[in-house]
Amino acid sequence: MSKTETDNGPDQEDLGAAGSQLSTAPTEELSVAPGLGVIGWARWFWRQLTSMRVALLLLLLLSLGAIPGSLIPQTGADLNKVDDFRKAHKTLAPIYDKLGLFHVYSSVWFSAIYILLFVSLIGCIVPRTWQFVGQLRGRPPGAPRRLTRLPAYTTWRTTAEPEQVREAALALLKKRRFRAHAAGDAIAAEKGYLRELGNLAFHIALIVLLVAFASGQLYKSDGTKLVVEGDGFSNALLQYDDFKAGSLFQNDDLVPFSFDLKDFKGTYEVTGPNRGTPRTFEAKIGYSEGAYGKEKSTTIKVNQPLHIGDSKVYLVSHGYAPVITVRDGKGKIVYKDAVPLLPLDGNVTSNGVVKVLDGYRNAQGKKEQLGFQAFFVPTFDPKSGTMLSQFPALVNPLLAVNAYHGDLGGVNAGMAQSVYQLDKTRMKAFKDGKGQLLKKLLQPGDTLTLPNGAGSLTFEKDIKEWAGFEIVQEPGSGWALGGALTAIFGLAGSLFIQRRRVWVRAVRGADGVTVVEMAGLGRSESAKVPEELGDLAGILYDQAPGAPEPDDDSTDSPVVPAEGAEK
Amino acid sequence: MTLAAATNEHLASISNTLIYSSMAVYTLAFFAYIAEWLFGSRSKVARTAAALTSEGAAKASGPAVTVKQAGGTAVLERPKVVVRSAAGARDVPDGPGAHGGDAQGDLYGRIAVSLTVLAFLVELAGVATRAASVERAPWGNMYEFNITFSTVAVGVYLGLLALKKNVRWLGLFLITTVLLDLGLAVTVLYTASDQLVPALHSYWLYIHVSTAIFCGAVFYVGAVATILYLFKDSYENKLQTGGKPGAFATSVLERLPASASLDKFAYRVNAAVFPLWTFTIIAGAIWAGDAWGRYWNWDPKETWSFITWVAYACYLHARATAGWKGRKAAYLAMIAFGCWLFNYYGVNIFVSGKHSYAGV
Fold this sequence. Notes:
The complex is a heterodimer of chains A (567) and B (360). By secondary structure, chain A is α+β, with helices and mostly antiparallel strands. Chain A has three domains: 41-132; 142-192 and 498-543, 2-Layer Sandwich (TATA-Binding Protein); 221-473, no CATH class. In chain A, 28% of the residues lie in helices and 29% in strands. Chain A is built from nine helices and 22 strands. Chain A has helices at residues 38-49, 52-71, 79-88, 92-99, 108-137, 162-175, 193-219, 477-496, 528-543, and strands at 152-158, 179-183, 186-191, 221-228, 232-234, 242-245, 257-268, 278-289, 296-301, 306-308, 311-327, 333-338, 342-343, 350-356, 369-377, 398-406, 427-429, 439-442, 447-450, 455-473, 500-508, 514-522. In chain A, strand 10 and strand 11 (311-327) form a beta hairpin. In chain A, helix 5 packs antiparallel against helix 7. The longest helix of chain A is centred in the N-terminal third of the chain and has 30 residues, at 108-137. With 360 residues, chain B is mainly alpha-helical. Chain B has two domains: 8-49 and 93-195, no CATH class; 200-359, no CATH class. Chain B contains ten helices and three strands; from the N terminus they run H-H-E-E-E-H-H-H-H-H-H-H-H. Chain B has helices at 3-42, 44-60, 103-134, 142-162, 171-187, 204-240, 247-253, 259-291, 300-318, 327-350, and strands at 67-70, 73-76, 82-83. Chain B has a two-stranded antiparallel ribbon with strand order 1-2. In chain B, a hairpin with a 2-residue loop joins strand 1 and strand 2 (73-76). At the A-B interface, helix 2, strand 1, strand 8, strand 11 and helix 8 of A face strand 2, strand 3, helix 8 and helix 9 of B. Strand 1 (152-158) of chain A pairs antiparallel with strand 3 (82-83) of chain B.
């Protein structure tokens, strides 16, 4: 595949060897029915696969195949959307599942298309590279017998000797960085090899890009971690809240580093129709590389991840973590911690759970566990008539709590349990004096006293923020970038550089006067070739000035314009 | 409200006024182009004469050597280059342009171009004040994208004219769609001026979005040429096979450049911008690597940029493949531009993804 230029150039049979190999692009051959036998079929199949036409069809298929992935929810992008889709389309979903339409870009058929395409590409690139190397080692082909047939042609008679003209032409062409040599009575020259080089570089770069992308997918790891101000994280599998990895990833591939979140700051639009829209998010952290590295401090912003080795740390989410103190009936502190709450909307209305697992004894002195459901708004506005937050920053924070006691369930049994949910199956709600569910709205500093001397919960004035980080390791991205940049330069070379040949013939005419003929041939019909030829001819003409025309110009006039001559 | 914010509101309203003014001037330019086409259609004689002179000029450049007599000694001028056109190519001369050789038509054409320049400057000022009002690049939402896009498309057209390229025939088709684009921008897509969400705070915004807009504008110019090529090509085919195209088709199409020229123009424009489009996607991937954690996410916008890229790659390859040259390649170019359009309007409006910022 991949010659990207018009081919309606000069008819090649006419020019013989001179017009050949101006590119290494494959020749279009008609598909002859294969001979009998496995080898015949294999060869036929290979020839088809590496033909331009099939490559073109595969390219078309690739773009068609990419479409469903952009319209149907993808498991790689958003699992929830896929689940919603499955629920909404009971009949369609199983069919989509069979076709792999929920993960198009890793499906068998999509992989088949691009693997075939790349096999076709390699099957095309390898022979072309050899051919190009051959062309580089060889010399530009000699002048065709009739230069008049070439797309750009000029001639004049000169007083200079033919040898002189040829020498001057050779020097001129070499100075213009043509590859030139004398071949018989003419100079043959060629320029613009960078076009071919660019073309090959582009296609090889695409292969590098694909391999880098694929290896990145196989060796990548991707996890998230929620960190409250003052807390830290060290890069080990157990520390992650959530972790995904490619199939060839190994745990000791994780880059060793650790960091502490010193401070998180978010600013928001204060006025106008977009009031509350985030403006900046910044997380100040101190980090150290390796197991015992020196601590350095830095700031992670939304577009500015922290790079440590192959790992990148991104700031992806944020929220509030009110500090809660729980005391038992005797006033002993049984729990004091910042409790990260998960945001429910853009104004950071949040909810979460406080779990007091051990250390608490109830009024009777019996061991028990406590659970609190917390609902938090950073900006409460009584005028709004709702409990929903009116602004994402801490303007008028309010915490709503209700309390339970009993057995928190699987926690002691070692069963995995969400820290954001309360399993109330073995819990009993605290009731207020009227027998209703105990519920209280707390402002910072307020305390909820549990009935019958069961203790209390204090919403401390210090409200911390938390930041969610995504730690991504994707090896090979440097290769991908290198491939991509090479592809651009290769592409520019192959599209903008014109490969062309120039011949200069100087012979003694019948009347003893030297006749100079110059002709140019490009890969495609372009105004540049005749322009350049005119330019070269002008310079050469100064060195080999014109001789008067013979009296009767009918005898020796090579100047008959070729049929159909037209600009 | 702070004083600074008030100034910004003020600038934003100036920007809106400028955009509306530019639409008014584009409308005038539109009518001037129409007048150019109308006057051009009335004089067949002028047109034939023009065609003849241009043919004569072509012939004059044919002979390679002219002899000039100076002081009795025959001195040759510098040798001239004979150009031989490709075998098998149709020998159809380029049409004279919309004015069809008619003097009044030409006058209106010149007025139209002048008005286009004026409208372009007004629109450019509108985009600039919009940028000043939000203190950032004016590419934060579809409204801003649309007004910048049409400014750049007209800029590309005027730039080609300034380079003395024969592209005045593009004018009417271009201005019509620019008016549509602006109309859509001020009615459906209008968004009050505002700052950006943190995800867009990056210098990559300047690199990635500006090249995306520029590529779109150039692809658009290429697409217009491709459509005209398809019409002109079937017109030429009909003439060649002895058919008789309709009077209106003849009047319009005979004034356009030859189908081969249109095809070549479309190819050059598309090929020239294809590496830049590649760069746009790569710049986007680098930005995505910083903003979203992975350089390629198969986000709908990314996917459609990729589809557009593959479609244009198909077109460039098809131009070099026997059996796909000409009309089939042109259809591929149209599909590719369709992908670009869908990527812009379709993906923004119908599909939600990581590129969804600031409403639409």
